[in-house]
Write a structure and sequence with these properties.
Shape: globular
Number of helices: 16
Distance between the termini: 74 Å
Largest sheet: 10 strands, antiparallel
Strand order of the largest sheet: 3-4-5-7-6-13-14-10-9-8
Strand content: 15-25%
Helix content: 25-40%
Number of strands: 15
Structural class: alpha+beta
Length: 497
């Protein structure tokens, strides 16, 4: 009965602390309005430890039955976000509570806000937990692998509706602060249960929020209050360290600012961070070097498949100065022998993916050298996963992948399950499995595959492919020639000083 589901949802709100006992009637009435109900009789039964997903399903099924919404993932998501907004505190209250807790400690503040983001269903925990995750041991450390299943697939009707929908310039993109409280539409997600924490970095107004898809623990997004394009420059390093000063228990990084090597959203300046230590952060410096004039800054080349320079110092301003110097040197650097070109036909190719963190009393900054040049042989990028790896990973290698977490397409869950069956039954690989044929042949040549081990071996092999993906993205390869080329760039950094 719908009344029971309403009471359960309100109870969930009180159990999680989203609303207080004093707001019970008010929140109930808001839910009634969303459901187009004029009356209500509260059930006598009391509920405890209410699980959100089944309650929302009951209410969504009711909405479909009464013709309030169409029965599709897109319309259900738009509607259940409206329902959850009936339980979420107003932005000013969230900000007030966050500031109060921040006064005690930054960790207490982020713990509160992260819990709120999950309890409000902005982060859909019941979807995120369906993501496939495992760890693969490599020579570079333990690399995280995830097959992302938390982003819902749009159904054909919704896709068609989105195409016909009026193209709105509001919000300008999914990172704009105008998303807070926005009801959404078929071509833009609902964010009525979304709350943003305002912060100041480098003297500008920015927003702090969590990613709804949380690829790792406390995966946060820090975005410019203005809709301006991404740009990696000296000010970028200042902003990263300003954030670290506010939240020393978090790391923060920026995608590169050029297509192919940058992230999926280059139109809005933003960073990603969180409370997690990636494999790259754990990777050791394998060769130290000194830059003239910056002897107080520890510098070295990191043992990692991509080309990474690590800077460390107790004075972040010294790191910022050196990082800016390296960035300028890299922007204009060409080494034909290493197939590194600063530009071709006026198109710039060199940029940097920076990641900042605290390390005890010191500040640490990783500078990942990126280059987006393309050729006829590699039209998607020379320093991009090559065609032979596209059966596993074809998409851009952005910040998250750079640090050692593979975000792989949802199709792989089904494909790996069917590959296991095909391998064990010695079946021909056809259709969408054909692209895995060479890879499977290689796996068979190195392993005795049984019912007990095939699933595990396939996961291990996926991890190995991702390690190769990262190697392809590395500008200076981990060969004798590549190491020599990397040192030539370091020499250039010193020459320019």
């Amino acid at each position: 009965m719908v009344y029971e589901a309403i009471k359960k949802l309100v109870t969930y709100g009180m159990e999680t602390g989203l609303i207080s006992e004093e707001e019970k009637i008010y929140s109930t009435n808001l839910i009634l309005d969303v459901l187009k109900l004029d009356d209500y009789e509260e059930p006598e039964e009391n509920y405890e430890k209410v699980e959100l997903e089944p309650v929302l399903k009951e209410l969504l099924d009711y909405a479909v039955e009464k013709g309030l919404i169409e029965d599709s993932v897109v319309y259900r998501d738009l509607f259940d976000t409206r329902l959850m907004n009936c339980l979420v505190p107003r932005p000013s209250q969230v900000i007030k509570t966050f500031k109060e807790k921040y006064a005690a400690s930054p960790e207490e503040a982020t713990n509160y806000y992260y819990k709120l983001s999950r309890d409000s269903d902005y982060i859909r925990r019941y979807r995120v937990c369906k993501d496939m995750k495992w760890v693969t041991k490599t020579e570079y450390g333990d690399i995280d692998i995830t097959i992302n299943l938390s982003k819902p697939e749009k159904d054909p009707k919704a896709i068609a509706a989105a195409k016909l929908a009026k193209q709105s310039g509001y919000p300008k993109c999914q990172l704009c602060r105008e998303n807070e409280g926005y009801a959404g539409r078929t071509n833009h997600p609902a964010r009525e249960n979304h709350r943003i924490i305002p912060i100041t970095i480098n003297g500008g107004q920015w927003g702090f929020q969590y990613s709804p898809y949380v690829y790792y623990n406390e995966h946060c997004i820090v975005f410019n209050g203005q809709h301006v394009p991404m740009k990696v420059e000296r000010a970028t390093f200042v902003k990263l360290f300003d954030f670290i000063k506010l939240f020393p228990h978090y790391f923060i990084g920026s995608n590169a600012d050029l297509p192919i090597v940058g992230g999926s959203i280059l139109s809005h300046d933003h960073f990603q961070g969180g409370n997690y230590e990636f494999a790259m952060a754990k990777a050791p410096v394998e060769r130290e070097f000194t830059v003239k004039g910056y002897e107080d800054v520890k510098a070295g080349i990191v043992k990692w498949p991509l080309s990474v320079i690590r800077l460390s110092c107790t004075d972040e301003k010294r790191i910022i100065d050196l990082a800016d110097h390296i960035l300028k040197a890299w922007r204009g650097y060409t080494d034909e022998e290493a197939y590194v070109f600063a530009e071709t036909d006026g198109e710039p190719h060199n940029t940097i993916t920076p990641i900042a963190r605290r390390r005890g009393d010191a500040y640490e900054l990783d500078l990942v050298l990126r280059n987006n040049i393309t050729t006829d042989e590699h039209p998607l990028g020379v320093y991009h996963p090559h065609a032979e790896l596209h059966h596993i990973k074809k998409e851009n290698i952005g910040l998250i992948e750079v640090m050692g977490l593979a975000v792989l397409p949802a199709r792989l869950k089904d494909e790996l399950a069917r590959l296991e069956v095909a391998i064990l039954n010695d079946q021909e690989l056809t259709g969408d499995l054909e692209k895995h044929r060479d890879w499977v042949a290689q796996i068979k040549s190195r392993n005795v595959l049984t019912k007990e081990n095939t699933s595990c071996i396939l996961r291990i092999e996926v991890g190995k492919v991702f390690a190769k993906v990262l190697e392809h993205a590395g500008v200076f390869k981990r060969t004798q020639e590549g190491r020599a080329a990397f040192l030539r760039f370091i020499d250039k950094v010193n020459e320019d000083n």
